[in-house]
Structure to design on (631 residues):
C-alpha cells in the first residue's frame, strides 16, 4: 500500500504522462487530436467551475460568460497583432478574473438561490455584450482569423501549434498547469476553509473564516481560470463566436461538472471527455438520441447523486472493502 | 408639430404598456408555478419552460384533433398538464428535494427530452394555431390589439384570484401554506406532505400549461417557445423574493412592462439586457428581493 500522500501525486503524474503520450499513437489521426484538444479546452473552465460548485458549494450558471471575456480579450489582442500569444492569453485571464471579482462583490452577498439566478443573468448579459458589440467582438458573426502561436523550439524538439499535435501539446500543458493549481488550491489551508464554508457557512464564520473574502477570492480565481480556457479555445478554433459562450454552453459546463462528479479532482475532466469527445465521436445531433441523452441525465440525477466519478469511487471502495472482508475471513 | 409628436409618443407608450401587460401576464403564469414549487418543496424546476411549451402543443392537438373549441382545449390542456405534473413530482422531483445540483441536472434532462421529443412528434418547424380570438381585433383609440391580448391578461387575473381563494379559503390550501412555512411542524399536526407536494406540482404545471395554451395561438408554437418565459419567470421570482406569491406577480408584470417600454428607447437586441441589468441593480439594493420574505433555515 502506498502512503496516503504519494498515491494521488503518483496517479497525477501517470495521468500527465498519459496525456503527453497521446499524440504518439494518434499523430496520424488529426480528428482524434481535434476532439481531445477541444475536450481539454472545456475541461479547463470545468475545473474552474468545480472549484466553486464542488469545493465551495457555489453554483454559478453563467461561467462560460467569464470564459468568453478571456476569449474575446485574447482574440482581439492577437487578431490585431497587438500582442503575441502568451501576453494575450495572460491579459485574457486577468481580464476574466477582474470581471469575476467585479461581479462577485455584489452577487456573493446574495443567498444561495438568488446567487444562482443572478449568475445566470450575468452569463446572459455577457453573452448579449459579445453578441451585440459589433465594433469590438464582431457581433453575431464572431471574430475569425485569429493566428496560432509561433513554433516553440525546445532544443530537443520543435512544438508547432499550427499543427494538430502542437496545439494538442499546448492545450495539454495549460490543462496540466490548471490541474496542478486546482490540486494545490484544494489541498491548501485556503481550500480547507472553502470546504468548511460549503459544509456550514455560519460555523465557518464563527471559527474565524472570513467567508466573504474567501468566496470572492475563489470566485475571481475561478473566473480567471475559465477565461484562460476560453482564450485557449479561441486560439485553437482560430475564431471567437458568441454562441460558444451563450446559455447553452453555460448549461453544458454545469452538466460537465455535475455529471462528471463535482468536488472530485478528476470529475470535471471525465465530464468534459463525456460531453465533448463522445458527441464529437458519435455525432450526436439527431433528436431521438438527444431524448435518450436527456433520459440518461434524469436517471443519473436520481441514481448517482455524486456524479459519475462519485459512482466509480463508491464502486471501487465497495470492491476494496469486499476484498478485505474476504481476506479477513480467509485469515480466521 | 410638437403637439402631434407628444401625441405619437403617448400612443406608442400606451401600446407598449398593453403589450407589456400581456407578456407580463404570461411571465406571471410561469412564475407562479415556480414560486409555488420552490416555496413548498424548495425545488427549483428549471424544466418549467418545457411544461409551458407542452401547453402550447397540447392545446394545438386538442383544438385540431379533438374538440375544435379553443376554450375547451385550454381546459383539457391544463388538466393533462396537472396529471403530468403529478407524475413528474412522484418519479423525479420528490427524490431530489435536498440535492440542488441534481435538480438542475434532472431539469436539463427533462428539457432535452421534451424539446427533442417535440421535434420528433411535430417536426422542427413552428406550428401556427389559428383561433377566433387572435383574428378579431379590439380598437382602443388609434391602437388595435387582438382579443387574445385581453384574454391573456384576464385569464391571468382570474388564475391569481382562484389561487388566492384556494390558498387562503380552503383546508387544502391552508395545509399547503402550512407545509411551506414549516414542513416538519405540518407533518406533526397530521398534514400528509406527499399529497401536498403532488397538488403543488399539479397546480404549478397546470398554470404553466395555461400560459403556453394562451400564448401559442398569438405567437408560434415551437420547441423552444418556453425558454424565454422560463428565464423571465425565474427573474420574476427572484425579484419578488423567491418564495413570495405577490412578489412573483408584481415581478412578472414589471418585467413584461419594462422590457416592452424599453424597446421605445433602445434597440430590441438589448431588451433582455435591460431586464437582467434591472434584476442585478434591484438585488444590489434589496438582496432579499422586492418582497422580502425570510424563508425557513435563514439566520
Amino acid at each position: 500500500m502506498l502512503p496516503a500522500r504519494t498515491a494521488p501525486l503518483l496517479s497525477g503524474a501517470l495521468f500527465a504522462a498519459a496525456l503527453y503520450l497521446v499524440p504518439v499513437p494518434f499523430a496520424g489521426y488529426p480528428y482524434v487530436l481535434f476532439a481531445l484538444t477541444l475536450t481539454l479546452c472545456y475541461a479547463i473552465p470545468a475545473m474552474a467551475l468545480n472549484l466553486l460548485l464542488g469545493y465551495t458549494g457555489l453554483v454559478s450558471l453563467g461561467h462560460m460568460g467569464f470564459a468568453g471575456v478571456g476569449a474575446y480579450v485574447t482574440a482581439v489582442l492577437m487578431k490585431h497583432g497587438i500582442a503575441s500569444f502568451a501576453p494575450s492569453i495572460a491579459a485574457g485571464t486577468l481580464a476574466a478574473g477582474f470581471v469575476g471579482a467585479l461581479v462577485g462583490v455584489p452577487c456573493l452577498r446574495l443567498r444561495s438561490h438568488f446567487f444562482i439566478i443572478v449568475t445566470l443573468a450575468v452569463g446572459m448579459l455577457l453573452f448579449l455584450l459579445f453578441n451585440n458589440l459589433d465594433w469590438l467582438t464582431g457581433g453575431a458573426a464572431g471574430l475569425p482569423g485569429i493566428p496560432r502561436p509561433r513554433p516553440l523550439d525546445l532544443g530537443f524538439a520543435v512544438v508547432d501549434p499550427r499543427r494538430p499535435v502542437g496545439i494538442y501539446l499546448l492545450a495539454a500543458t495549460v490543462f496540466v498547469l490548471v490541474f496542478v493549481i486546482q490540486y494545490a488550491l484544494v489541498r491548501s489551508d485556503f481550500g480547507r476553509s472553502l470546504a468548511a464554508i460549503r459544509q456550514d457557512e455560519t460555523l465557518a464564520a464563527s471559527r474565524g473564516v472570513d467567508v466573504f473574502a474567501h468566496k470572492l477570492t475563489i470566485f475571481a480565481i475561478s473566473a480567471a481560470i475559465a477565461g484562460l480556457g476560453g482564450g485557449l479555445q479561441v486560439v485553437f478554433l482560430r475564431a471567437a463566436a458568441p454562441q460558444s459562450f451563450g446559455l447553452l454552453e453555460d448549461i453544458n459546463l454545469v452538466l460537465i461538472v455535475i455529471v462528471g462528479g463535482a468536488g472530485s479532482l478528476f470529475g470535471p475532466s471525465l465530464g468534459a471527455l463525456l460531453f465533448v469527445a463522445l458527441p464529437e465521436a458519435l455525432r450526436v445531433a439527431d433528436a431521438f438520441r438527444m431524448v435518450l441523452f436527456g433520459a440518461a441525465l434524469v436517471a443519473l440525477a436520481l441514481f448517482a447523486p455524486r456524479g459519475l466519478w462519485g459512482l466509480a469511487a463508491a464502486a471501487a471502495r465497495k470492491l476494496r472493502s469486499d476484498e478485505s472482508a474476504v481476506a479477513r475471513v480467509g485469515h480466521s | 408639430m410638437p403637439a402631434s409628436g407628444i401625441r405619437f409618443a403617448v400612443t406608442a407608450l400606451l401600446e407598449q404598456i398593453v403589450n407589456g401587460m400581456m407578456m407580463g401576464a404570461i411571465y406571471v403564469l410561469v412564475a407562479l408555478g415556480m414560486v409555488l414549487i420552490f416555496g413548498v418543496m424548495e425545488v427549483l424546476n428549471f424544466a418549467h419552460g418545457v411544461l409551458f411549451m407542452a401547453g402550447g402543443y397540447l392545446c394545438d392537438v386538442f383544438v385540431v384533433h379533438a374538440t375544435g373549441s379553443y376554450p375547451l382545449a385550454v381546459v383539457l390542456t391544463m388538466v393533462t398538464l396537472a396529471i403530468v405534473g403529478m407524475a413528474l413530482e412522484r418519479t423525479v422531483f420528490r427524490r431530489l428535494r435536498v440535492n440542488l445540483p441534481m435538480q438542475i441536472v434532472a431539469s436539463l434532462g427533462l428539457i432535452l427530452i421534451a424539446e427533442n421529443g417535440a421535434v420528433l412528434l411535430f417536426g422542427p418547424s413552428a406550428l401556427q394555431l389559428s383561433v377566433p380570438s387572435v383574428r378579431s381585433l379590439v380598437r382602443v383609440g388609434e391602437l388595435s390589439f387582438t382579443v387574445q391580448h385581453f384574454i391573456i391578461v384576464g385569464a391571468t387575473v382570474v388564475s391569481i384570484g382562484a389561487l388566492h381563494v384556494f390558498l387562503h379559503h380552503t383546508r387544502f390550501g391552508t395545509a399547503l401554506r402550512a407545509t411551506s412555512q414549516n414542513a416538519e411542524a405540518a407533518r406533526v399536526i397530521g398534514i400528509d406532505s406527499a399529497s401536498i407536494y403532488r397538488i403543488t406540482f399539479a397546480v404549478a404545471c397546470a398554470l404553466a400549461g395555461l400560459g403556453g395554451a394562451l400564448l401559442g395561438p398569438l405567437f408560434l408554437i415551437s420547441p423552444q417557445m418556453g425558454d424565454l418565459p422560463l428565464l423571465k419567470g425565474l427573474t420574476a421570482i427572484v425579484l419578488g423574493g423567491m418564495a413570495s406569491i405577490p412578489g412573483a406577480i408584481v415581478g412578472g408584470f414589471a418585467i413584461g412592462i419594462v422590457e416592452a417600454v424599453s424597446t421605445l428607447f433602445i434597440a430590441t437586441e438589448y431588451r433582455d439586457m435591460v431586464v437582467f441589468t434591472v434584476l442585478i441593480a434591484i438585488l444590489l439594493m434589496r438582496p432579499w428581493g422586492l418582497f422580502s420574505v425570510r424563508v425557513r433555515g435563514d439566520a
Notes: Residues 306 and 313 of chain A are 10 Å apart (CA to CA). The beta strands of chain A are 143-144, 152-153, 158-159, 239-240.
